[in-house]
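Last lecture ended with a question: if I hand you only a sequence, what can you say about the shape of the protein? Today we answer it with a concrete record. The protein is Histidine kinase. Below, first the input exactly as provided, then the predicted structure, then a couple of comments.
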Amino acid sequence: MRAPAATGLSYGGRAEAEHAARAVSRALKRARLERAGAVLLFLTPHYAANPGPAIRAAARAAGSLQVIGATAAGILTEEEWVLDSPGAAAMVFAAPVTPAPIGPAPLDDEAIILSLCTPAGLTADWLDVPVKRVGAVSGDLFGHGPFKVWAGGREAESGRADAILLGVRGVLRASQGVRALTSPIEVAEVQGYDVKRLGNYPALNVLVKSLPVGVRELERIPLHLIMGGVTFGDPLTAIREGRYRLNHIVAANLGDQSITLSHPLSRGERLFWAMRDALTAERDMRQTIEDAARALGDAPSFALLFPCMGRGPHFYGNRDRDLELLTARFPGLPVIGMYGNGEIGPLDDANHLYQYSAVLGLFRTQAA
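The predicted structure:
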């Protein structure tokens, strides 16, 4: 019996187009398909300068021009993750369970759009549409380098690639996985990007007092591990329910005890200080998987996983605990994903660009 989706992985010492063909062929064999309705293809950054030969090799092996994908800092399937070696990860789909080009007709409210882009292709009007997006930004932690996305077997000059996921119903969840250092506090004074006061106290003073003792006593506070969380809805339950967006610290200003953030806030918003922590992230991912499984209701047919490059093996100590937790929960489930420079998923009834997070999509074929 053929499977609705299956994956293949191939990597080695050189960035050869054959890796893409081999990954597709292995996926077809697992799915018991002679040809694919469509292919999701992720390539390591070694292919970014010229992905065309690998894309064409994947299309030939699949017998389909419907190849969508991106180059990324790293790639993954349920088998393993690849960061340093040239390689390809492919998921093949049996029609009618397939990513398909978006047509002119209005999309159903439950439609899910596979969305991939380069840093230059990411725009607010593209992200902000009234349908659910899931995907990632092709890039590394710094957004440097030649990164590419493609759809229909061709590089996308716009830097954006979209495909509607047909024949499935899906559930999308995101794991931000930070350790809250404070409860949400009202922003009492703010000027542009600079938060002056939280409640009755200077913002920097609140941050320093909230830090664990071992961190507070360091000569330099590790600001790259600390961020603000801006809550939505009831602040009493927002952290527990994941209703917040992360706002990264740009600078701590000793002169006026303010904190400069990456996105401006408004007076009256609620902000809590948080810290990146592997154990907290692992617990949060486990809960995220369970929430998604419960919402889906049935055993998933395949999964898409988009962890931040800063959340993967470099964060967990040469292991990807997000991937390990997912494959342990669903043994044998086809999983494909990429490590990128921003993760795309829903938040507060809108599409959101996450950072240092993992976005998960569980999908069940409608015929299954």
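Comments.
1. Residues 278-296 form the longest helix (19 residues).
2. The CA atoms of residues 33 and 124 lie 39 Å apart.
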